[in-house]
Amino acid sequence: MRLYLLLIVVFFVNAVSWTVDAQTPAYRYRPPVRHHRTHRPARPATGSVHYYINSEGNRVQSPTFYTAPPAGASAECRDGSYSFSQSRRGTCSHHGGVKRWL
To answer: Cα separation of 41 and 63, whole Å?
Structure first.
C-alpha cells in the first residue's frame, strides 16, 4: 500500500512540474536593442584611414577624428569627426549631423 501511495505522489509531483514547464516558454523573447546614441567610430591609429564609395562612384575618406580641421574636409560632425563628403546630402548622418560646414 505504501508503494502505491508513493507512486501516486511521484506521479502528481511530475504532473505539476510538466504543467509548469508547459506554461514557461522554451525561449524568452527579447525585443531588438535600439541604440539612439550617436555612432562614434574608434579613433584611427596613424595611417589607418578608411574610405567608402559615394553615390557618384568616387572614393571618399570616411569621417575621421582630427585635432584640427584637415585639408579637404567639408564639414565638422557633432561627434567631433571631420567629413570629406562631396555633397551635402547625408553628410555626418551617422555622426550626429553637421556641426558646421567648412
So the answer is: 9
Nearest to 64 by CA among 92, 36, 86, 38: 92
Q: Which of 80, 86, 26, 93 minimizes the C-alpha distance to 57?
A: 86
The cell for 68 is 584640427
Cα(15)–Cα(89) distance, integer angstroms: 64
Taking the complete model, does pTM exceed 0.85, yes or no?
A: no
Burial bucket for residue 84 (CB in 10 Å: 0-12, 13-18, 19+): buried
Q: What is the pLDDT of residue 26?
A: 57
